[in-house]
């Protein structure tokens, strides 16, 4: 193959690739995996994270699942970030968040872990984390879907849940009157 033939081939493949990218439609929507890690202490308390930007408590997460990483490695990293050790990793549910007028969906697996101690016995857990009694935590979380998810997972620990929500309109700080929320598919058992 001559250099000229090679360049024609490369340019042709590039044009075809760009044409395919620009033809993206709603059917080609993007799904982002954004796990949450619910740490439970003595079946009485959960560890919540205080988001200083939103001035609100929420179930901890270390962000989206990016790159070649397993769920176990993700949860291990989140526990390390929280400064805790754990046992009994289990899936509490897989939830879908759909945003109107956008070609994106968030897939939110909720993992439940049992707190066993602090990573470093001499170190205090980061002040952005707080142990909260379960009932209080459900009321304290300002995001309707997350609050409902935590309640379902903890009230029925032997069930793996699924549901689909539309939830958007978050502000900094959180103004719950601006959050738009509806249940698209109500809670159902996955196991």
Description of the molecule:
Helices cover 27% and strands 38% of the residues. The protein is α/β, with parallel strands linked by helices. It has one domain (29-189): Nucleoside Triphosphate Pyrophosphohydrolase (Alpha-Beta Complex), CATH 3.90.79. Strands 1, 2, 3, 4, 5, 6, 7, 8 and 9 form a nine-stranded mixed beta sheet that branches.
- Secondary-structure class: alpha/beta
According to CATH, the homologous superfamily is Nucleoside Triphosphate Pyrophosphohydrolase
The CATH class is identified as Alpha Beta
Mean pLDDT: 86
Helix content: 25-40%
Domain count: the total is: 1
Number of strands: 9
Indicate the proportion of strand residues.
Answer: 35-45%
Radius of gyration: 21 Å
Given as residue ranges, the uncertain stretches (5+ residues, pLDDT < 50) are 3-24
| Secondary structure tally, helices | 4
Spatial shape: globular
> Could you give the order of the helices and strands?
HEEEEHEEEHHEE
């Amino acid at each position: 193959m001559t250099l000229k033939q090679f360049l024609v081939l490369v340019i042709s493949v590039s044009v075809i690739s760009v044409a395919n990218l620009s033809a993206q439609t709603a059917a080609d929507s993007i799904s982002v995996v954004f796990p949450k890690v619910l740490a439970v202490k003595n079946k009485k308390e959960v560890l919540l994270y205080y988001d200083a930007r939103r001035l609100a408590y929420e179930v901890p997460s270390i962000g989206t699942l990016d790159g070649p990483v397993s769920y176990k490695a993700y949860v291990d990293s989140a526990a390390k970030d929280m400064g805790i050790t754990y046992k009994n990793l289990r899936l509490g549910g897989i939830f879908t968040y759909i945003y109107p007028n956008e070609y994106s969906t968030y897939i939110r697996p909720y993992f439940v872990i049992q707190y066993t101690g602090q990573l470093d016995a001499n170190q205090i857990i980061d002040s952005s984390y707080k142990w909260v009694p379960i009932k209080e935590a459900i009321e304290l979380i300002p995001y309707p879907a997350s609050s409902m998810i935590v309640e379902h997972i903890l009230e029925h620990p032997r069930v793996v849940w699924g549901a689909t929500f539309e939830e958007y309109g978050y502000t900094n700080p959180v103004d719950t009157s601006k959050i738009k929320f509806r249940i698209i598919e109500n809670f159902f058992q996955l196991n």
